[in-house]
UniProtKB/TrEMBL annotation:
FMN binds at residues 14-16, 40, 105-108, 140. Dimethylallyl phosphate binds at residues 170, 186. InterPro entries: Flavoprotein (IPR003382), UbiX-like (IPR004507). Residues 8-191 form the Flavoprotein domain. This is Flavin prenyltransferase UbiX. Pfam families: Flavoprotein. Keywords: Flavoprotein, FMN, Prenyltransferase, Transferase. Flavin prenyltransferase that catalyzes the synthesis of the prenylated FMN cofactor (prenyl-FMN) for 4-hydroxy-3-polyprenylbenzoic acid decarboxylase UbiD. The prenyltransferase is metal-independent and links a dimethylallyl moiety from dimethylallyl monophosphate (DMAP) to the flavin N5 and C6 atoms of FMN. Belongs to the UbiX/PAD1 family. It comes from Azospira inquinata. One of its GO terms (molecular function) is flavin prenyltransferase activity.
Length: 207
């Protein structure tokens, strides 16, 4: 089994499904990880619409917002804007151990599939592919067009992991939070980060 990453770059884009990303951020910090957070302005719109959550536009203010919410957790948080080209994840020499784009819009997915790298989210993902480090994309769209599917196939062949947020119901979820936790647990499993949100198949959930 691959070692759990010490540093994870997490990106929020404008796709629906920001509760997955926010919960993942909390869990990574709870697991003591160093999280490098990237976000698009469209993600701020989605946060307001889906969670009634007002996320500050400036990276420094957003970092303060999340530190106020999760400051008691053992992990560390850094926040970068989409145009901060001197951020560490913009180069292979400063690449994180793993990256997750959650949720991932079809626009971002297409850009990464084509190697466009026109902003820091796309460039960071491009770096992960070229450095052959784990890149997980959580695409939230339905139905998928042929173009969407071809882009996902291209990324999978390049080494990315495509993890659509499709919750299972065998654990008998009782709330929306349970459905969110199911997907976040699968992401953490792929990162080899210990989690107690969902038990493995045939096992029992930890306290």
């Amino acid at each position: 089994m691959a070692p759990a990453p010490a540093t994870v770059c997490l990106a929020f884009t404008g796709a629906s499904g920001l509760p997955y990303g926010i919960r993942l951020l909390e869990c990574l910090l709870a697991a003591g990880r160093r999280v490098q957070l990237l976000y698009s302005q469209a993600a701020r719109v989605v946060a307001k619409q889906e969670m009634d959550l007002e996320l500050p536009a400036a990276p420094k203010e957003l970092a303060e917002h999340f530190r106020a919410a999760y400051g008691e957790l053992p992990g560390t948080l850094e926040v970068y804007g989409r145009e901060e080209w001197f951020a560490p994840m913009a180069s292979g020499s400063g690449a994180p151990d793993a990256m997750v784009i959650c949720p991932c819009s079809m626009g971002t997915l297409a850009a990464v599939a084509q190697g466009l790298a026109d902003n820091l989210i796309e460039r960071a993902a491009d770096v992960m592919l070229k450095e052959r480090r784990p890149l997980i994309l959580v695409p939230r769209e339905t139905p998928f067009s042929v173009i969407h599917l071809e882009n996902m196939l291209r990324l999978a062949r390049a080494g990315a992991l495509i993890l659509p947020p499709n919750p299972g119901f065998y654990a008998h979820p009782q709330s929306v939070d349970d459905l969110v936790d199911f997907v976040v647990a699968r992401i953490l499993d792929q990162l080899h980060v210990p989690q107690s949100l969902q038990a493995p198949w045939g096992g029992e959930k930890e306290a």
